[in-house]
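During the second year of the project, the team shifted from modelling isolated chains to modelling whole assemblies. The rationale, set out in the original proposal, was that interfaces cannot be judged from single-chain predictions alone. As a representative example for this report, we include one of the complexes processed in the last quarter. Its constituent sequences, exactly as entered into the pipeline, are reproduced here:
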Amino acid sequence: GAGVSQSPSNKVTEKGKDVELRCDPISGHTALYWYRQSLGQGLEFLIYFQGNSAPDKSGLPSDRFSAERTGGSVSTLTIQRTQQEDSAVYLCASSLAVIGAGLAFFGQGTRLTVV
Amino acid sequence: EDQVTQSPEALRLQEGESSSLNCSYTVSGLRGLFWYRQDPGKGPEFLFTLYSAGEEKEKERLKATLTKKESFLHITAPKPEDSATYLCAVSSNYQLIWGAGTKLIIKP
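Output from the structure prediction step:
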């Protein structure tokens, strides 16, 4: 597509429920990144993909968080047993290659609210 | 530990009043410093990349400069449409280390 697309744009869920956040990157971009942005905080790196592989998962906050990417395209970030501290905006970005981590194009984000 | 600090947290200016935003950083082996603009409800939008001390980049009313310890984003004669949060990040291998941003408000 023309840009990075994320869905849903807003998600309200009850504490303890699982949620799935989707990211559709720019066509041809091999690198894909997930970030979390809390109010008044800088972006927190969660995970990146080079193709379908995630070489470093150490940014994921806990084992309740997981992510996958299929076909070198769409990625899904799953949060199991959501907690109130998971409330934040989750941003996805893509770039032509990992080496261009700064030249990334961002989606509009998914605002997750856990009640 | 790699760290990025932006100041001020918020800045209110009158239209046409020039000023500068600061981004100070500590990183082992700078591979690049990046400025992004973020509007409410949207993802960050890339503005500039700087790689070495002394480098400068310009785009319309914005100019970014880089020293060994900090970067400045100078805004000249700003307009209300320049209102946004400006984010700074430094590159560390495959990821970016982000500052918390400066919220810039330009009043007409």
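The mean pLDDT of chain B is 93. Chain B has one domain: 3-101.
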